[in-house]
Each structure stands twice: as structure tokens, then as C-alpha cells.
Amino acid sequence: MPTQTETIITAGLRPELLGHLHPRVALSRTSLFVLLGVLVLAGLAFRVARIGAEGFSEDELNKLQAVEDYRAHGLTSANGEHPMLMKALLTLSLASAEEWNSLAPAASHPDSLRVSPEAALRFPSALFGALTCVLIYLVAAELFGAEVGLIAAALWALDPAAIGLNRIAKEDTFFLFFFLLANFFWIRSQTITEGPTGRSPEPYYWATGAALGAMIASKYMPFFVAVSVSYNYAFQGLPNRRWQIGRPRYLRIFVFAFIIFLLCN
Fold first, then answer.
1. Cα R_g (the chain), whole angstroms
2. Residue 145, by phi and psi: left (phi above 0), alpha (psi -120 to 50) or beta?
3. Distances from the Cα of 160 to the Cαs of 155, 157, 166, 200, in angstroms?
4. Does residue 224 surpass a pLDDT of 90?
5. Dihedrals φ, ψ of 171, to 5°?
6. Contact 17, 99 (CB under 8 A)
7. Is the dihedral of CA 104, 107, 108, 112 positive or negative?
8. What is the pLDDT of residues 140-167, one digit of tens each?
């Protein structure tokens, strides 16, 4: 006699589940903000502790020379192989450090309050690296719930490899920050579209474009846009889905990203 086999589904993603993913942890909004704030402060403390103790690497020295050239002669071709967004932040940090060092408290206590050029050059990377844990929480919470988001954020904030990377002036820190920001907006537009709220996801599409433009202006790696596009493409194979971008909206998103790229670069 023929036997009837039973199909066992071990896991599945359905659009109707997306509206119930965030948040799934029994925490008030205030408690969540406090936890994320503690992670940011702890991560920042590890990243800025004795951040100016080591001298400049060759790559950092090239950026410092480019910043000094910009401040002396305006925008030039110095260090033109690297995007401008990071160097603009480094310029702001170095100028702020010089202003601080000229004040009475720093002048009277140079050993403890004076900010060295090494620390000033690396501080933007440390700050953006510490804030990245918030974006990791937001992305992970949208996909897997708040518990996973908090664990992922804590791992990033306290991970020695991440801390070490964020303690040097590298474009990768800023690139990752805006990459995660873009994908949070992207996934948030999906959650709103598939959820029962009836809200328009249009603002999140524009925010995604802005973050993608800033991402490419942080490091010339535009092919990472394919990550977000592929996620949307894979989702199209699910039944009963409502999240569909379409070519006209894709075109508007990418044009807006290009405009932001030009403004940041």
C-alpha cells in the first residue's frame, strides 16, 4: 500500500509575522533607552581610553596632511583617493581640539586636559563606532526581536576587535555606520508595509537613499547597495507579500542617494 508522506516545515518567513517582531522584550521604552545608553557610553569609554597614546600610522598621517592642506589652501587634490566625508569630520575634530586646547583649563593642565592631534584625529571614528551598537540593535530588533538586538549591540560595544578597529582613523567605521543606518530604514519600510498600521513607508525610502549616499561618500564601495536590493528581491518570492518597491521608486531612491553622495563628497 502506498504510504502518505508528511511535509515538515522547520522554519518559515511569512509577511504577516513581520509586524509582530518588534519589540518582544518585556522592557519599557525608558529602560531600553537606558540600556542602550549604557552600552554606548561603555563602548565609547573603551574606544577613547588613551586613544592618543600611539603615534600616527602611515594612513592616518596621510589623512592628517590632507586635512592640514585643506585648512591652509581650501579643497585641493591632496589624498583625493579617499572620500571627503570622513576627512570633513576629521577637520571638524582637529579644529575643535585646537580651540579646546587654547582655553584656560586645557592650557593650565596640559597633561590631563590637552587633546593631542592623535586623539583628535581618531575621536570621530571612536564616536561613530560606539554609536554603531545602537544601529545594530535597531537592525537586529527589526529582524529577530529586541532580545537578539540587545545581545548583538552588547557584543559590538564590548568586542575587542571592534574596539581596536574604531580606535584608528579608518573609513570602514563610517561606512559600516551608514550601511547599517540604510538597512534599518530599508527593513523598517518593509515592517510598516507588511504591518497593520496603514502608515506610509515613503519617508523611510528617502531616508534609505540618504544613508546610502552617505555610505558611499564614506568609502567608495557602491556594490554594497546590492545587499539591500537582494534582500528585497528574495522577499518577492514569498506569498501574500505587500512590500514591493518597483522600478520608479528604485530610480528615485538611487537618484536621491547620488545627490547626497555629491553633497557629502
1. 22
2. left
3. 9, 9, 10, 40
4. yes
5. -65, -25
6. no
7. positive
8. 988 888 888 999 999 999 999 999 999 9
**CB-CB neighbours of 49 under 10 Å:** 11
Q: Is the peptide bond before 23 cis (omega within 30 degrees of 0)?
A: yes
Q: Residue ranges of the alpha helices (H) in the chain? A: 29-48, 58-73, 84-101, 104-108, 110-113, 117-144, 146-158, 160-166, 171-194, 202-218, 225-235, 247-264
Q: What is the pLDDT of residues 229-240, one digit of tens each?
A: 998 888 877 777
Structure-block grid coordinates of residue 197: 498600521
First-to-last C-alpha distance (Å) of the chain: 72
Cell of 174: 563610517
Contact between residue 193 and residue 242 where contact means Cβ atoms under 8 Å apart: yes
Provide the pLDDT for residue 233: 86
Residue 220 burial by Cβ neighbours in a 10 Å radius (0-12, 13-18, 19+): middle
Domain boundaries of the chain, sorted by first residue:
21-169, 171-265
12 pLDDT tier (thresholds 50, 70, 90): very low
Mean pLDDT, rounded, for 103-123: 83
- Round to whole Å and give the CA distance between 115 and 96: 10
